[in-house]
Structures are given as C-alpha cells and as structure tokens.
Amino acid sequence: MTVAVGVTGATGRMGREVLAAAGQRGDCEIAFAVSESADAGTTVEGYEVEPAGELEDLVADREPDAVVDFTVPEATAGYAAACGEAGVSFVTGTTGLGADEITALDRASDAIPVLHAPNFSRGVSVLVEVVREAVGSLPGYDVELAETHHNGKRDAPSGTAERLLETIEAEGDFSGRKHGREGDDPRVEGEIGVHALRAGAIAGEHEVLLADDHEELRLTHRAADRGVFAAGALDAAVWLADREPGRYEFADVLG
Ligand SMILES: NC(=O)C1=CN([C@@H]2O[C@H](COP(=O)(O)OP(=O)(O)OC[C@H]3O[C@@H](n4cnc5c(N)ncnc54)[C@H](OP(=O)(O)O)[C@@H]3O)[C@@H](O)[C@H]2O)C=CC1
Ligand SMILES: O=C(O)C1=N[C@H](C(=O)O)C[C@H](O)C1
C-alpha cells in the first residue's frame, strides 16, 4: 500500500527533508506540500508548495492518508483541528507545544489517529530508555543535561530534552531543574542542571551526565543530519495511516 502524505512547513528545514526522503521511498507519495509564506511558483524538491492557509481545501481535495507536520506550535494546533475535521491521520514533530496546543492534539485524537514525537530518531528512543535505567540504578548521582542545536532553533530546552527531563524526574528524587549557571551559583543537591547551546548548523545533540565523587557516566546521542528525523516521521505516517483514532507515541511505531 502507498500512503499519500500531505506535508506542512514544506519550506522549512524539516519540511524540505521530509519531501526529499519521501521521494526515495516506495511506501509513500506526496499528496501536497504547504508553507506559510509560499509564493506562486515556489517548489521544494520538485514539489509545488502551496499557501498554508488553504490546508482545509487541500485536505478535502487531495484526500491524503496522513499529514506530516514540522512547523510552529500555533500552526500545529490548527492543522491538528483541520485533520480532525477531515478524518486524516496527523503526525507532528513540532516542539515547544504549550497546554493549549496539547489540548488541540487531544481533541483531534477523538476523531483521528494523532502521533506527536519530540524526536523521530530511533537512537533517541533507545537513549530515553537507557537514561531511565541509569537514573534508576544510580540514586544520589548528580544529573546534568546538555542539548546542542543549530542557531535557528526557536525553543529551549529542546523537545527531546523535555522528554529526557520528564524521564529523569519520574525515575529519581530530584529537587528541581536548574537552567544555566552564573556567578556565585554552586550546585544544590538534588537539582538537575539543564544547558541549551545554539551554534551553526548542528542537527541535534543530547547528553545526560551522571556523576558521583568517584565516577561519571555520559549518555550521548548525536544526529548526523536531519534525514534520520524525516525517515522516522514518514515511518510513523505509514504506520499511523490505518490506525484507530487516539494518541500514539513513536515508540508504538518501533514496536
Ligand atoms: N520531532 C523531531 O524529530 C524534530 C522536530 N523538529 C521540530 O520541528 C519544528 C520545525 O523545525 P524546522 O524545520 O527546523 O523549522 P523551520 O523554521 O526551518 O521551518 C518552520 C516551517 O514552519 C512554517 N511556519 C512558520 N510559522 C508558521 C505559521 N504561523 N503557520 C504555518 N506555518 C508556519 C515555516 O513556513 P515559512 O518558511 O513559509 O514561514 C517553515 O516552513 C520545530 O518545532 C523543531 O523543534 C525539528 C527536527 C526534528
Ligand atoms: O529543532 C530541531 O532541529 C530539533 N528539534 C527536536 C527537539 O526539539 O528535540 C529534535 C531534534 O533534536 C532537532
């Protein structure tokens, strides 16, 4: 079966990557591509990019099996609602979602399958589980998290860092998060240090450091490029296309 995919944010870093990846696969085809500021004649990877304001019409006309979204939180909430109305599965990797946007995903999931993942890399899925085990096995160790991304990233800490922090907090007895460190600011027992670096074109790095007075353990994931996220998102779209309505995780796709 070939899954027809609509792509939002088509002119963005991830949208371009999703369109490029789709062209290399036999299990999906592009139904349409949209972007907020697309002008007439804009093309990406050979696909015509249409104005995002026309999403409802495009979903009705082209009848995709799924929409893949990497945009901004305020757009993601509206796209989820439009897909819910049209009965089209919705996959989103947009990070920095607030309570209202999460509620929009939940509402849409009454009508359609919705999968939101802060990271579509298989390696990060494993990292989350390894961090869970490490924190649970090393009670009392200091924990610090650092994430590094390109200079165009909007949200901090990254969505992946948020997922790792939730995992760490669920597994141990911590007093709170400490974002950055400056001046006369020694470490307080039980805090989780959080550091966000932004530079150049770095696709995405996450490191969790656990240490006591005698040893240190560093658990690190590095994305070599964005292709890994695009591949995971398309895997999710193919998997999600014929599911029942509800909320799904990337881990469900990986089985
Ligand atoms: N889950 C994962 O594995 C990954 C998640 N991400 C997340 O994906 C998101 C996008 O990242 P990235 O591609 O780097 O971002 P970019 O800034 O490169 O692209 C954003 C896209 O969103 C569009 N956009 C911006 N504002 C609006 C709006 N108000 N309505 C509709 N569309 C809009 C832009 O359109 P235009 O250019 O026309 O303005 C652009 O196409 C981020 O939240 C990022 O954290 C990124 C990588 C992996
Ligand atoms: O904005 C990005 O680039 C990335 N965002 C995701 C996040 O916020 O965790 C995933 C990946 O690290 C790249």
TrEMBL record:
<keyword id="KW-0963">Cytoplasm</keyword>
<feature type="domain" description="Dihydrodipicolinate reductase N-terminal">
    <location>
        <begin position="4"/>
        <end position="120"/>
    </location>
</feature>
<comment type="function">
    <text>Catalyzes the conversion of 4-hydroxy-tetrahydrodipicolinate (HTPA) to tetrahydrodipicolinate.</text>
</comment>
<dbReference type="GO" id="GO:0050661">
    <property type="term" value="F:NADP binding"/>
</dbReference>
<feature type="active site" description="Proton donor/acceptor">
    <location>
        <position position="149"/>
    </location>
</feature>
<keyword id="KW-0521">NADP</keyword>
<keyword id="KW-0520">NAD</keyword>
<dbReference type="InterPro" id="IPR022663">
    <property type="entry name" value="DapB_C"/>
</dbReference>
<keyword id="KW-0028">Amino-acid biosynthesis</keyword>
<dbReference type="GO" id="GO:0016726">
    <property type="term" value="F:oxidoreductase activity, acting on CH or CH2 groups, NAD or NADP as acceptor"/>
</dbReference>
<dbReference type="GO" id="GO:0019877">
    <property type="term" value="P:diaminopimelate biosynthetic process"/>
</dbReference>
<dbReference type="InterPro" id="IPR000846">
    <property type="entry name" value="DapB_N"/>
</dbReference>
<keyword id="KW-0220">Diaminopimelate biosynthesis</keyword>
<comment type="similarity">
    <text>Belongs to the DapB family.</text>
</comment>
<dbReference type="Pfam" id="PF05173">
    <property type="entry name" value="DapB_C"/>
</dbReference>
<dbReference type="GO" id="GO:0005737">
    <property type="term" value="C:cytoplasm"/>
</dbReference>
<feature type="binding site">
    <location>
        <begin position="93"/>
        <end position="95"/>
    </location>
    <ligand>
        <name>NAD(+)</name>
    </ligand>
</feature>
<dbReference type="GO" id="GO:0009089">
    <property type="term" value="P:lysine biosynthetic process via diaminopimelate"/>
</dbReference>
<feature type="binding site">
    <location>
        <begin position="117"/>
        <end position="120"/>
    </location>
    <ligand>
        <name>NAD(+)</name>
    </ligand>
</feature>
<feature type="domain" description="Dihydrodipicolinate reductase C-terminal">
    <location>
        <begin position="123"/>
        <end position="254"/>
    </location>
</feature>
<feature type="binding site">
    <location>
        <begin position="9"/>
        <end position="14"/>
    </location>
    <ligand>
        <name>NAD(+)</name>
    </ligand>
</feature>
<comment type="subunit">
    <text>Homotetramer.</text>
</comment>
<dbReference type="GO" id="GO:0008839">
    <property type="term" value="F:4-hydroxy-tetrahydrodipicolinate reductase"/>
</dbReference>
<feature type="active site" description="Proton donor">
    <location>
        <position position="153"/>
    </location>
</feature>
<feature type="binding site">
    <location>
        <position position="150"/>
    </location>
    <ligand>
        <name>(S)-2,3,4,5-tetrahydrodipicolinate</name>
    </ligand>
</feature>
<feature type="binding site">
    <location>
        <begin position="159"/>
        <end position="160"/>
    </location>
    <ligand>
        <name>(S)-2,3,4,5-tetrahydrodipicolinate</name>
    </ligand>
</feature>
<dbReference type="InterPro" id="IPR036291">
    <property type="entry name" value="NAD(P)-bd_dom_sf"/>
</dbReference>
<dbReference type="Pfam" id="PF01113">
    <property type="entry name" value="DapB_N"/>
</dbReference>
<dbReference type="InterPro" id="IPR023940">
    <property type="entry name" value="DHDPR_bac"/>
</dbReference>
<keyword id="KW-0457">Lysine biosynthesis</keyword>
<keyword id="KW-0560">Oxidoreductase</keyword>
<comment type="pathway">
    <text>Amino-acid biosynthesis; L-lysine biosynthesis via DAP pathway; (S)-tetrahydrodipicolinate from L-aspartate: step 4/4.</text>
</comment>
<feature type="binding site">
    <location>
        <position position="36"/>
    </location>
    <ligand>
        <name>NAD(+)</name>
    </ligand>
</feature>
<dbReference type="InterPro" id="IPR022664">
    <property type="entry name" value="DapB_N_CS"/>
</dbReference>
<protein>
    <recommendedName>
        <fullName>4-hydroxy-tetrahydrodipicolinate reductase</fullName>
        <ecNumber>1.17.1.8</ecNumber>
    </recommendedName>
</protein>
<dbReference type="GO" id="GO:0051287">
    <property type="term" value="F:NAD binding"/>
</dbReference>
